[in-house]
Amino acid sequence: MLIGFVLICAGILIALYPPLLSIVVAGLLIFLGTVVLVTAHAGRRARGQRTPRVLDLFLRY
Fold first, then answer.
1. What's the predicted TM-score (pTM) here?
2. I want to staple 49 with a disulfide (CB 3.0 to 4.6 A). Which of 31, 43, 44, 53 is the partner?
3. What is the pLDDT of residue 26?
4. For residue 58, how many other CB atoms are within 10 A of its CB?
5. How far is CA 4 from the centre of its chain?
6. How far, CA to CA in Å, does 6 sit from each of 10, 23, 28, 41, 55?
7. What are the boundaries of each domain within the chain?
């Protein structure tokens, strides 16, 4: 029920302020890209393969 309420509120906010949709989509894409990078890094680490140097710069810590 709470999720439905949140989705309705998000729909109303997007209807009232359309640029909010582009912000939400951009945030979602950034989040999903980060998840893919971290998952790939963890998979390489688990298999014992070397991480590419470019990823080492971003995923050092």
1. 0.60
2. 44
3. 92
4. 11
5. 22
6. 6, 17, 16, 33, 36
7. 20-61
Q: In this structure, which long-range contacts are made by residues 24-27, counting pairs with CB atoms below 8 Å and at least 24 apart in sequence?
A: none
Q: Of 55, 54, 24, whose CA–CA distance to 38 is shortest?
A: 55
Residue where the block lists tokens 């298999």: 47
Q: What is the pLDDT of residue 53?
A: 65
3-state secondary structure the chain: CHHHHHHHHHHHHHHHCCHHHHHHHHHHHHHHHHHHHHHHHHHHHHHCCCCCHHHHHHCCC
32 touches 26 (CB < 8 A): no
User: Which position has the token pair 């590419």?
Assistant: 52
